[in-house]
Input
Amino acid sequence: MTASATQIAADVRARRVSAAQVCRDALARIDAANPRLNAFLQVFHDRALEQARAIDARMARGEDPGPLAGVPVALKDNICLEWGRTTAGSRMLENYESPFSATAARRLIDAGAVIVGKTNLDEFGMGSSGENSAFGPTRNPHDESRVPGGSSSGSAAAVAAGLVPVALGSDTGGSIRQPAGWCGIVGVKPTYGRVSRYGLIAYASSLDQIGVLAGMVDDAALALSVIAGPDPLDATSARRELEEFTHDPSTPPPSLVIGVPRQARAASHHAAVTAALDSAINAYKVVGARIVDVDLPHTDHALAAYYLVAAAEASSNLARYDGIRYGRRSSPAREGEAGEVPESSRAEGGLLDLYCRSRSEGLGPEVQRRIMLGTYALSAGYYDAYYLTALRARRLVKTDFDAAWAAGCHALLLPTSPGPAFRLGERADPIAMYLEDVYTVGVNLAGLPAVALPGGRAGEAGSRLPVGLQLVGPAWQESSLLRAARLLEAANPVPRTATSAPASS
Amino acid sequence: MFTRCPSPAHAGAVDAGPNSLIDAVVLALPGTLPVMNRVAVEMAMLVGLALHCRITPRTKWDRKGYFYPDLPKGYQISQYDMPLCADGWLAVPDGDGPARKIGVLRAHLEEDAGKLLHERPGGGSEEDLGFSIVDLNRAGTPLLEVVTQPDFTTAEQVVAFARALRNICRFLGVTEGVMQKGHIRFEPNINCTITLENGRTVTTPIVEVKNLNSFRSLRAAVEHEAAEQPRRWERDGRVHGPGAKRTMGWDDARGITIPQREKEDAHDYRYFPDPDLPPVVVDEHWLESVRSRLPELPQERETRYRAEFDLSPKEAATLVEERDVCLLFDAAVGALVQRHVPRPRAGRLAANMILQSGLKRAGERGVPVSELGITAERIAEVAALRERGLISAAAADELFGLLCVPPGSAGGPAPNQSVESIAGSRGLLLVRDDAALDRWCREAIEAQPQAAADVRAGRSQALGRLVGEAMKRSGGQGDARAVRERLVKILTEPPTEVGGSCS
Output
């Protein structure tokens, strides 16, 4: 297993180990594990080593290489990088090379991180299992017959398998927290506007947020402190001063109040989820936190509102993939007809026909489903009934959380999913898949920060699958939220990585 | 509007090649985001204020969705139901009648689309090309769409409004307003009410003519539709109503409107607020800081020129027609005042120079007076010489022409040579020698005794003949005004003394 990011950066900065050596080790682990996991879509063997050697050279010149000196980091492949390809897990962008790097990626690199590769994902971030990638599903390192969750499936699997200590993901409706839960690691979804979205390939602009997957809270906090902050290239990034995210973990938060929503417990849950919740509540009680009951009455509406708002925005955001300027363009319908201009753009060989064929060939079934759903929701005559109603429900969801903060809660404790990871192909029905997101989407609708962390293990035949919990905090309170997460991490230890887990049954 | 990319409407980007003024945001590359251009919003506010609009205190951006190759994102960022400016008006000249007040419904900002070319740049049709080509230089450029109320009854009113709007925009400095470059485009909506023999009326469907880029074609398109719509109604019987509106293009060569290539069969733009852009809040402080930058607008100037300089309505209107000419006039007035010419007189002198010597040459060269190459300083120098009686009117005009050369170009006077010295070196300075003046006058009286007798008898219209005669004798070096004064003086003296001085 890999050392933590905090440890690696400290060792590299103290010249106890070279960044190049750290990088070579990471690349060797990736090369060994990736054929089975399919966590990485690309590995930058040469470029990563080049970056690592540059860090070592800076050290040799006496320069400060930054807080992430020599830390190997993986990027979800919907985060643009000016080298390699940026595919968003889509056939449409199979060969797309971005001319610029995302602000978050740029900040990692400037802080001394070494980008070892791009990780697999559900196409354009649309999925909860990792099975919607055009380049094959990622497998869960804890049980390779199971999914790792999604859509940040590759980043979660890479961290859980110990291939990298830290990876970036994006969270639109739970895409960081749900796979973090199923892979038994930490996932941080920051407040909307905390991290620049410039260079994140948009799925749903009002919900998307880049965040961190890591083996432990400290590492996630370290990476978050690097990527967070205002960016003139993103009008929705908040002009807020950065707080200290990397607090001294030994300082106990004063009179911590943890709210547990009534909706966190349901009969349909896997028993291990309820057990994890109880275990965490006890752990908090032991360290002196107060546990209070809260109600999030609009939780049921959150899922419906999410799938309307996200689909509506996606239908617009993905309109640019028309095969005209870049991306996959369908070949002409018939040979020997070049030069003939069809009477109507709808006719075979016409403009509309080209759009339809390029998009049908380039975009996967789940993406097409959401585009159609969103187009319908925004259409004349349906806008009020669907989109506007969803926006109203979104406000109510936010009101639920506001009431909890007003009641004095510092954070809310919730499961990340109703159960542990399912087997590949097990959820064929899209609606059943959407239901997995019931605990995560509300946070995105309200724009709040949340931290997912290991909650326990579900003992299923021959395997011990991770079960995740999440702490949700008020907007811009990442600092105290991370502190509450550290406290739980220390008080309720759960075996973290997958290396000791038995192989798939 | 939402990118740092240079605009093709900017003077420095006039000759930019196709697709050279683009960036990742314009191209809608994955991961790019729009960021609002605050200056463009302020420019739009200036236009709104000049059109007496209400500036919306809190507005937003909306996405207007449609697929077309000139629209890289698959949607255009625009303002759907909350335009930045609303409910204004502009009074425009209406023939010989009183000014006509045209209502402004709204003015909203959006980003422009690119251009789709169905022909080769050097000619040839789409059939030859086999495909269409896209130039995205214009894509993403800020565009202010001004929508008027249906307050026009003639094509003249439409053109008068269009001209007034362009001039306001030029005074505000929000566009160069060069029609050929597409800086301003007009899209008139036209329909007619036909009164039948039985007294019943029918209203024809509205036709929107797209993308007119000259005042001439604007007038022609409106006139064409006004004439064509009753005939069209007789043919197809279609009347105004939901779904009846049509979009037409303008064939300038044939002078007719033609049905347009439709962008999509069904126009459902699926507007929704753009989640990438926060709402725009125009607070009092911002609005006042923009308002304080409003310059004096053409119609205010026109009124002032008439009052301050006693110019005729036509003179004042001509001076404010072009922003740069107007600024040249103002500067020339200022330079004359610096030369101790009283301000009202300075306005008259500068107006005479610009409206006579200037317009004549501008007409010959096909450029505005402001582009003739003469500076306000030089205009003032010439006018001041004339005012001091040192040069004739003809010489002033000649000097004006001499100074209409780009500074530093060959053949023209040196930039540091004073106009007086130029006039001197070219023999254009009037002779102020009283003896010479006296000689020319007396010779003229001798040559035209009948005229002299007439003047003495009180028939002063005969004085012109004597002035002409004296000027002829001066070889053009006499000042007509001084000659006239001297002649009057001589002819009103007792005759004996005249005779005596002749002997």
Notes: The first strand of chain A starts at residue 40 and ends at 43. The domain at 5-254+418-491 of chain A is CATH 3.90.1300.10 (Amidase signature (AS) enzymes). DSSP finds 15 helices and eleven strands in chain A. Residues 184 and 495 of chain A are 8 Å apart (CA to CA).
